[in-house]
């Protein structure tokens, strides 16, 4: 169906495909009563009916255990701004982030955010 919808064009497998393959996927049923600090992260576009032009995006982080939600505005969907917003959210939550789960949006699955998560995990600052 995808090939037919794209009129026979296939996407080239590249860096982002490699990142997507190595990042584990978790569904809501996989949480098993987590402690506070594990967040679902998503972007909300405030562009109305069109995504053309400039508009604010909101990085929304929801703690799975408590429902605590932090919303941070971003001017662009750029990896370094996403990392900056997650770091800012860390200062707003009353506990350490232990992990972040996000969808396969290119704002998250990129060569800035995924390595940052790995680095944070390896330094035990947060189990990301």
Structure overview:
The chain is of the alpha+beta class and 128 residues long. Helices cover 28% and strands 20% of the residues. A four-stranded mixed β-sheet has the order 3-2-1-4, with helices on one face. A hairpin with a 5-residue loop joins strand 2 and strand 3 (69-74). The longest helix has 14 residues, at 79-92. It starts with a helix and ends in a 6-residue tail after the last helix.
Report low-confidence residues grouped into runs of 5 or more.
124-128
- Helix count from the secondary structure assignment: 4
Level of helix content? 25-40%
Biggest sheet: strands side by side, in what order? 3-2-1-4
Strand content: 15-25%
What's the alpha carbon Rg, rounded to whole Å? Answer: 16 Å
What general outline do the C-alpha atoms trace?
globular
Q: Quick one: biggest sheet?
A: 4 strands, mixed
- Structure class: alpha+beta
Order of helices and strands: HHEEEHEH
Mean pLDDT comes to 79
Total beta-strand segments: 4
Q: How far do the termini sit from each other?
A: 35 Å
Descriptive keywords:
single chain, 128 residues, alpha+beta, four-stranded mixed β-sheet, 4 helices, globular, disordered C terminus
At a glance:
This protein has 4 helices and 4 strands, in the order ααβββαβα.
What is this structure's SSE topology?
Layout: H1 2-5, H2 15-22, E1 38-45, E2 57-63, E3 69-74, H3 79-92, E4 99-102, H4 113-122
Parallel strand pairs: 1-4
Antiparallel strand pairs: 1-2, 2-3
């Amino acid at each position: 169906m995808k090939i037919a919808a794209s009129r026979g064009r296939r996407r080239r497998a590249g860096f982002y495909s490699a990142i997507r393959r190595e990042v584990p996927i978790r569904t809501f049923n996989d949480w098993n009563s987590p402690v506070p600090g594990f967040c679902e992260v998503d972007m909300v576009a405030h562009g109305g009916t069109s995504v053309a032009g400039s508009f604010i995006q909101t990085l929304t982080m929801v703690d799975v255990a408590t429902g605590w939600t932090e919303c941070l505005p971003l001017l662009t969907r750029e990896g370094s701004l996403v990392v900056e917003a997650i770091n800012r959210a860390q200062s707003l939550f009353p506990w350490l982030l232990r992990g972040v789960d996000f969808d396969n949006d290119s704002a998250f699955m990129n060569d800035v955010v995924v390595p940052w998560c790995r680095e944070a995990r390896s330094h035990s600052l947060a189990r990301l």
